[in-house]
From TrEMBL:
Residues 250-393 form the GTP cyclohydrolase II domain. Residues 1-13 have a biased composition (Basic and acidic residues). Residues 30-216 form the GTP cyclohydrolase N-terminal domain. It comes from the Eukaryota. This is GTP cyclohydrolase II. Residues 1-23 are annotated as: Disordered. It holds the Pfam family GTP_CH_N. The lineage of its organism: Eukaryota, Sar, Stramenopiles, Ochrophyta, Bolidophyceae. It comes from Triparma laevis f. longispina.
């Protein structure tokens, strides 16, 4: 063989860096994942938690590498189905390789020691924002490896921030907060990447039990959870999270520099549309105000926003619970607040905070000076992973909407951290707004026949 023989050259490249050549599968080939020997014969090895990203291995979850793919699921979380629609509609070439050359982070995050500790990070890929740096040699060979984290900056504009300025609580400094009321943030969007053995450990079950439960409750959406116990990584079809940072992110790991933090779970009705049945938006905007103050004092403020709508039960379930709360005998009351969710969903809460601290460890957080939350579940989850919390800050009472007294009273009674105390009598006495909803009237299916005009 001469040295110009392309085959010899390819062989040499492979030997030099130990990276096999990509096995590019045809994109129109249908792989049934229900048989263990049908595909994925040669997944790229992953050593989760290894400090060297090349030894750790890239997360490969794209459709181009049927034989070498090492993760179950699909990129883009719940939006993965839309890419299927786009291909079906002829709008997306399934062979499209993303052009990532201008996409790299606009500020640095890490690496931190926590990145190499599965007990600290098991639900996101800590190298997910730097795949073009860490896995350049794979990308150059033609592998389709996607970032699961994107890091950018923004100006954000909230009426509550302008109100805080008008009231004299916040002052523009031209750096963190502008005269216009806009504040300047660094932010990161993160898609979930689960390392199943550690996720199972945190939930106190076996990995097999975890895999079986997800398989069953998604109607068998991912057969590989059962057929491929050797594949340890799962990109679940769920919402991800966004990190918002005020101040210099480089100060985050320094325990001597103040850090303010809120971990917020999505509540679209309140967060975006201002529904007053809960404290979600007021809590979030109060946290942002505190984050801005901390950043102006030379520290950093972080809001981690999880897409866990309706305690991860979803908005349909949430509204069903609202109707139950308002219609139940005696009306909406603090006493029955948690019961109503359980009555409808069978469970009070599916947010399970066990994976929640991971983005904090991704940022290198080891100490939070001001934790803007009353939730004991969140507090315990964070301190149990080794992060210290100095002060716990509850929402100022004047920010609680009238109709949200039911929620806050029930939460404080059930152990949420607060300076106020709630008695059983308060629980009985705290009532929500009356909507005078009619009791459900049974109708026949025939009454819903759509008339043909
Ligand atoms: Zn809410």
């Amino acid at each position: 063989m001469s040295s110009t023989d392309p085959k010899a050259k390819k062989q040499k490249t492979e030997e030099d860096d130990g990276i096999p050549l990509p096995d590019l599968s045809p994109v129109d080939f249908i792989n049934l994942t229900s048989h263990s020997d049908a595909f994925g014969v040669d997944p790229i090895p992953v050593s989760w938690g290894h400090p060297n990203p090349m030894v750790r291995g890239p997360v490969i979850c794209t459709i181009r590498h049927a034989a070498q793919r090492n993760a179950i699921g699909a990129h883009q979380g719940s939006y993965c189905v839309y890419t299927g629609l786009a291909v079906a509609a002829g709008k997306l070439n399934p062979e499209h390789m993303p052009d990532l050359k201008l996409t790299s982070p606009v500020f640095d995050i890490g690496p931190f020691p926590s990145w190499a500790d599965p007990k600290k990070i098991a639900s996101i890929d800590p190298f997910g924002h730097v795949v073009t740096d860490c896995y350049r040699s794979y990308l150059d060979k033609g592998y389709d490896i996607r970032p699961t984290i994107a890091v950018t900056k923004a100006h954000i504009d909230l009426p509550e921030t302008r109100e805080a300025m008008a009231a004299g609580r916040l002052k523009a400094d031209g750096v963190v907060l502008l005269e216009t009321g806009q504040s300047i943030v660094s932010k990161a969007a993160i898609e979930p990447v689960w390392y199943l053995p550690e996720v199972a450990r945190r939930f106190g079950c076996s990995e097999a039990k975890l895999r079986q439960s997800i398989f069953r409750m998604t109607n068998g959406m991912y057969p590989e959870l059962i057929t491929r116990p050797d594949l340890k990584i799962f990109l679940p079809p769920i919402g991800g999270l966004t990190i918002y940072i005020w101040g210099d992110p480089d100060t985050i790991p320094d325990e001597d520099i103040p850090l303010t933090c809120r971990v917020h779970d999505e509540c679209n009705g309140s967060d975006v549309f201002g529904s007053d049945i809960c404290t979600c938006r007021p809590y979030m905007t109060h946290a942002i105000e505190e984050c801005i103050k901390t950043a102006q004092a030379g520290g950093c403020g972080i809001v981690v926003y999880f897409r866990k709508e309706g305690r991860s039960l979803g908005e349909v379930t949430k509204y069903l619970v609202y109707n139950t709360r308002k219609r139940q005998e005696g009306g909406d009351s603090a006493e029955k607040y948690f019961n109503c969710t359980e009555q409808v969903a069978g469970v009070q809460d599916t947010r399970f905070q066990a994976l929640m601290p991971d983005p904090l460890h991704f940022l290198g957080v080891t100490k939070i000076h001001n934790f803007i939350s009353m939730s004991d579940m969140k507090y315990n989850a964070i301190v149990n992973t080794g992060i210290k919390i100095e002060n716990r800050i509850e929402i100022p009472p004047e920010l609680v909407p009238a109709d949200a007294q039911v929620e806050i009273t029930a939460k404080v009674f059930h152990g949420y951290n607060s300076s106020s105390t709630v008695t059983t009598q308060d629980m009985k006495d705290t009532k929500g707004r009356e909507y005078a909803y009619e009791q459900p009237k049974e109708k026949q299916a025939g009454e819903y026949i759509v008339e043909d005009k």
